[in-house]
Amino acid sequence: MHNVPITARRAPLRRTALILAALAAAAPAIAEDFGDTPYVQTPQNVVDKMLEIAKVGPRDFVIDLGSGDGRMIITAAKKRGARGFGVDLDRRLVALANRNAAKAGVADRAVFYERDLYKTDIRRATVMTIYLLPEVNLMVRPKLLSSLRPGTRIVSHDYDMGEWTPELSLVMDAPGKTVGRDMKSKVFYWVVPATVSGTWRWQVTRSGRTQDFDLAAEQMFQNFDGTVVSEGRSGKIEGGKLAGNRITLATMIDDGGGATRYEFSGRVAGDRIKGEIRMVRNGETSKTPWVARRVEKRQPRHMSLPPPTPFDPPR
Ligand SMILES: C[S@@+](CC[C@H](N)C(=O)[O-])C[C@H]1O[C@@H](n2cnc3c(N)ncnc32)[C@H](O)[C@@H]1O
Q1: Which one, out of 44, 117, 132, 269, has a CA that is 20 to 30 A from the CA of 171?
Q2: What pLDDT, in 10s, does the model give residues 17-52?
């Protein structure tokens, strides 16, 4: 683990610092400024809510990007028995966070490093927490989606992630909040989806007859669409959805002698899917195992979205 010198910060951080400085200046009585890097705290009741929404527990490894005084990871360790680390560019905040962890008796499970969040290895996380800015969220989004394992939960204070629809969002009272006028906080929650873009293939044997199926999936975050083709007949994917590794989709294919509705559910493991197919034809339902393999991989659409423009104002 290497330290990143303060001077190595990137242009986005300067913008972050400027906007945070403006936010902090808006509430000078309460906002704390540790000098070089302005920072805004998440109120403790919002920290508690974020960890509750992500269902953080003793098996979790939590990473906070831009960890401030360490409250997110310290609370995750102290109240929920988790482990984790935080990173921040401000070495005084990092020192404060490590002191706070020691005071709370969780220094063995909550550790803080002076490091740039963009250069942080986050692959170990089962839960990620962030309180950054809208454009920083968008800049960090590709890293979250490409580095984190499917099923990893992400919770963000106040800002969303653009086109990535959250699984849950709420507004709550935030007494003592140091920015804004209404003492309210927003919380957003996502689950990192498995990557299913590309072409998948499987067979179904019914009444002694084996049928080949191809699924061509175009993925945008946790949703995907495309077509299922079997023996020259095709059906549009309906409700293609990923909840971490869990995949569900349905389609209707008319083979000339009548329409069959296929409902698929299973788990994605790399280039394999294992699950079940439920088929409904002429009012009769049957089930069969579903074992599919990916024969062609493609990049999900969400990985080629344009980066945010530098001067997007905070929403
Ligand atoms: C809004 S504060 C959030 C602090 C804490 N996570 C909380 O919720 O109370 C954002 C923090 O991110 C840090 N930060 C900003 N850009 C960073 C970067 N590129 N790498 C690491 N930390 C960064 C700032 O120093 C600041 O402490």
Answers
A1: 117
A2: 444 444 444 333 223 333 333 589 999 999 999 999
**Å from CA of 239 to ligand 1 middle:** 37
Q: Backbone phi, then psi, for 132, in 5-degree steps?
A: -120, -140
Domain count, the chain: 2
- The reply to whether 20 and 160 lie within a common domain is yes
Residues 33 and 168 in one domain: yes
Sorting pLDDT into bands at 50, 70 and 90, what band is 310? low
Question: Which residues of 166-245 form beta strands (DSSP E)?
Answer: 168-173, 184-191, 198-206, 209-220, 223-230, 233-236, 238-243
Q: Is 172 helix (H, G, I), strand (E, B) or coil?
A: strand
Residue 315 lies in a domain: no
Average pLDDT over residues 183-200: 97
Query: Strand order in 184-191's β-sheet?
Result: 110-114, 83-88, 61-65, 127-130, 153-157, 184-191, 168-173
Mutate which of 30, 127, 131, 143 to test ligand 1's pocket (most atoms within 8 Å of Cβ)?
131
144 and 173 belong to one structural domain: yes
Residues 98, 112: contact at Cβ < 8 Å? Answer: yes
Are residues 55 and 21 both part of a single domain? Answer: yes
Pocket of ligand 1 contains residue 13 by CB under 6 Å? yes
Å from CA of 165 to ligand 1 middle: 23
Nearest CA to ligand 1 atom 16: 13
CATH number (domain holding residue 262): 2.40.128
Residue type, 16: T
pTM of the model: 0.87
Range of the domain at 139: 10-192
Residue-wise pLDDT tens digits, 219-246: 999 999 999 999 999 999 999 999 999 9
The ligand 1 atom at the shortest distance from the C-alpha of residue 9 is: 19
CB of 158 sitting under 6 A from ligand 1: no
